[in-house]
Design goal:
Elements: E1 5-8, H1 18-27, E2 32-38, H2 50-56, E3 63-69, H3 77-83, E4 87-91, H4 98-107, E5 111-116, E6 134-138, H5 154-166, E7 172-176, H6 184-189, E8 194-197, H7 199-203, H8 207-214
Parallel strand pairs: 1-8, 2-3, 3-4, 4-5, 5-6, 6-7, 7-8
Helix pairs in contact: 2-3
Bound molecules: D-xylitol-5-phosphate and zinc ion.
């Protein structure tokens, strides 16, 4: 299990002043930034494209963790990696060549991961565990920030942690959706080491303290 990492989600930032809000993420001492890409088909919302990532890249050293919520991620991984993504995660629900897309992400020099929705069995990601750097377990139905954390998903992160240990693998286990300082401990107890937080991070008055609580430093 890796040391805990908080990845604030840019979805909850002010989209007219992304560069300034990203400075707040850096000033809180964070190392990662989670970037949600939505296509209006796989999820009922639209967000950013490769141009946003390319424009942010020279402004920050944060590790850009790009979460693709797309029906056709295989057509976009190259654009996002060329734009500066450090890691790209792809959903297992749509029909496309998942192992080939993971291999392509690696070939292009980025880290890769698979994502599954709350209604998807954890077995859907099992075939890829040896090929990835991270599994993202969605703790809300993706599409919007500000939803309630679904604690039942933690049975699946626990299973992932058991597989990771039994098979001597070292992928990270990330949760995304409704994560806050109060539910981070139960996540950690169920194998989670990487925490996306949008609303809870950007609404918190003391962002350093928020990070320290989530990263178990206090
Ligand atoms: C949801 C996105 C999340 C979202 C989380 O579809 O994948 O990354 O930003 O936001 P909060 O933390 O507000 O639930
Ligand atoms: Zn996300």
């Amino acid at each position: 299990m890796g040391s805990p990492i908080l990845a604030p989600s840019m979805l909850a930032a002010d989209h007219t002043r992304l560069a300034e809000d990203i400075k707040c993420v850096e000033q809180a001492g964070c190392q990662w930034l989670h970037v949600d890409i939505m296509d209006g088909h796989f999820v009922p919302n639209l967000t950013f494209g490769p141009q946003t990532v390319a424009d942010l890249r020279p402004k920050t050293k944060l590790f850009l963790d790009v979460h693709l919520m797309l029906d056709n991620p295989q057509e976009f991984v190259e654009h996002f990696i060329k734009a500066g993504a450090d890691q790209v995660t792809i959903h297992v629900e749509p029909e496309y060549d998942i192992p080939g897309t993971l291999a392509k992400i690696r070939e292009l020099g980025a880290k890769c991961g698979v994502v599954f929705n709350p209604g998807t069995p954890v077995a859907a990601v099992e075939p890829y565990l040896e090929q990835i750097d991270m599994v993202l377990a969605m703790t809300v139905q993706p599409g919007f920030g500000g939803q309630s954390f679904q604690e039942s998903v933690l049975e699946k992160t626990k299973q992932l942690a058991a597989w990771r240990e039994e098979r001597n693998l070292d992928f990270r286990i990330q949760v995304d959706g409704g994560v806050n300082a109060d539910n981070a401990p139960i996540c950690r107890n169920n194998g989670v080491d990487t925490f996306v937080a949008g609303t809870a991070f950007f609404k918190s008055e003391d962002k350093v303290a928020f990070r320290q609580k989530v990263e178990e430093l206090v």
